[in-house]
């Protein structure tokens, strides 16, 4: 294989793809039958979740492992790479192992962060279909979501243009009296496009729709994406999609997709998307890729269905949660596990020397620019100071009653003294620690890591949720803010406070889960505050209601549901070889 210290990820992936196993072979080795496999070419397939779960309903689940991380730098700290490294390492040990990761959004793929296929010798392949649409799930989500907005705006136009009697005679519709100033949804697109954060639609004459202010979010922030992540079957998905709140009427009553009579058509777009996708690691282990919500603006998990299918088929299943343990793991713990009924055996906290230095006082890396010179030399002091952030995340995992394993995701530039400092401090905090060089050496570099996770899975744990759903919303937010983020308390805008009180007074809304929206770059709601900030309060400026997904969504800080594209985006380096037709430049 090409040397990852001298070759970009896409070149390594292309070299590995010359030796890929056909996906039928991957599926057959895993125990998936031919009638359960829905082929999308030779190397990608969907798996009929219903047939697998029905056939294996009496088979015990395998061990369940979640991969999370410390607070990352803007460059990310390699959770997907580590997930691939772990599955490769366990494969090297002869274990029957699977992984589940999220489908990448076109936004970061064509922007700064890349496609999240992993990196070096720890990747999910084939890279090009993985990165560029896969089997069309995100396209289905965009069509489903945007259809709701089409239905809403058309309904508002027709209610404006016709009397009640005309509406009844022309289409059997009854007036919904939608409030144009109180619309919950916007449109979505799968790119980072700051120009679409605030728009006006319906410009022109009366035949051109209803004129109102609207917006675009990135596709992975859609409630339809969240529903794909948590739905347990098609019936559950249909019910959830029908409960999506699109807007409110002039009395404040919610208007759902079923009120607009569009929930069924939205679900029709999603039928095939409900089946998880099956790919492989660079070393040939099965990898499920399904759902793609970000953790800073959404639930941040691959699908419950992918995990349920994989746990029936393998002895060890590795799933990945987005960003740091304060948001990705917290949602895995209190939302995904609550909805799925699954209990994890172990959680991995990924740490890099680079990120620990950043939290310990080194200059903050800027995406698209070279790493600051300060990261090139040994600085044990910065690493030790940065370990306060790591220890905070270890404590968060321990509050869930789960056994933590710290994976030092090693770069070839890390020094022995820096690695020793992390091991010493993390072990003193009560975590197993494993050094892993999967990026550079693949599964052979992850054997210590694989052994540590296996040992952690054999120990008993005392898994428990942070809060009960009977706890009032503001008390839940307060608990998350104080016990997971380390805040002194929570403050609310007038709008958010009014919504919180309304939700707490509603018997149905008050029982929904709590899905926090917060920056991933800090434990606080201020991305500039590194390490373990002290003396701060969480500011909740807005609260959204995702009635279909089953979430109340408090929005903290200034984070946006539509990221922006930077000045040096990845699309500048993506191209196609005109001779072979192969895509170059993806990472």
From TrEMBL:
Residues that bind ATP: 73-80
Metabolic or biological pathway: One-carbon metabolism; tetrahydrofolate interconversion
MF GO annotations: ATP binding; formate-tetrahydrofolate ligase activity
EC number in record: 6.3.4.3
Pfam families named in the record: FTHFS (PF01268)
GO BP term, example: tetrahydrofolate interconversion
Keyword entries, A-Z: ATP-binding, Ligase, Nucleotide-binding, One-carbon metabolism
Catalytic activity from the UniProt record: (6S)-5,6,7,8-tetrahydrofolate + formate + ATP = (6R)-10-formyltetrahydrofolate + ADP + phosphate
Enzyme class: ligase
Membership in a protein family: Belongs to the formate--tetrahydrofolate ligase family.
Protein name: Formate--tetrahydrofolate ligase
Gene it is expressed from: fhs
